[in-house]
Amino acid sequence: MKVKEILSALDRDFALENAEKWDNVGLLVGDADATTEKIIVCHDLTRDVIRRAVVSGCQVIVSYHPLIFKPMPNVTAQGYEGALVAELIKNGLSLISVHTALDHAPNGTRPRLASVLEIEEWSDLGGYGLFGKTACSTEKLELFLPKIAKKLNADGLKYYDAGLPVRVIGAGGGSCGELIEDAKAAGCDTFVTGDLKHSRFMAAAGLGINLIDAGHFETEFFAADIIADALRVEYPNADIEVCTAGSTVGIWRK
């Protein structure tokens, strides 16, 4: 397989041109004409992922989040992104990212998040969000919290309880706090996302909507699996591995 062929396959599945303008998707590092017999898929690129690629003889890494978001003034071993770029080049590795192209795709992160939250017949809520009635409804938010923590593999949840029964859920993977007002307007009693600032909890209190911060990674933990599943259809005989090394964040509780 050539890198450019893998890139074309991802473009067919997730339409890279639909990524947000501020995003950075496609081939970020490497040689489009390079070949590989193995593909490693990860959520975030880390040194451990690179080490795994080198040990396994893989030449292509596909990450959900892009390593490079903004133009880099230099590439040095002293900076986090620069050091990883240098490691990729040193080892002849190519890096492809899909990020918001996957978020917008019909077979991307939103239908998977809807499935995890048991949202039936979901509808669009902005470019990243979704909403709909959930099969795991309950009269009290406190009964819904342990369910959601289990489904998203979350070690902890931050929340605001508006005293509403959980029936219609809005959700957005990663960081979608800006959609809280849209969720309320759409008739949601509960909104689930990650990376919420304190001001967003205050907004939820003012609006009267249940709000849950389950974590950025936790609300999109399935992204790498979606990418890998698509690539396995494109390349049924290829060696495709999902690598989670170094991609999770621990939560300490006293």
Detailed description of the structure:
This protein is an alpha/beta fold. The protein folds into two domains: 3-103 and 221-242, NIF3 (NGG1p interacting factor 3)-like (Udp-n-acetylmuramoylalanyl-d-glutamate--2,6- Diaminopimelate Ligase, Chain: A, domain 1), CATH 3.40.1390; 106-213, Udp-n-acetylmuramoylalanyl-d-glutamate--2,6- Diaminopimelate Ligase, Chain: A, domain 1 (3-Layer(aba) Sandwich), CATH 3.40.1390. The chain is built from nine helices and eleven strands. A hairpin with a 3-residue loop joins strand 5 (119-125) and strand 6 (129-138). The chain starts with a helix and ends in a 12-residue tail after the last strand. The model has no long low-confidence stretch (mean pLDDT 93).
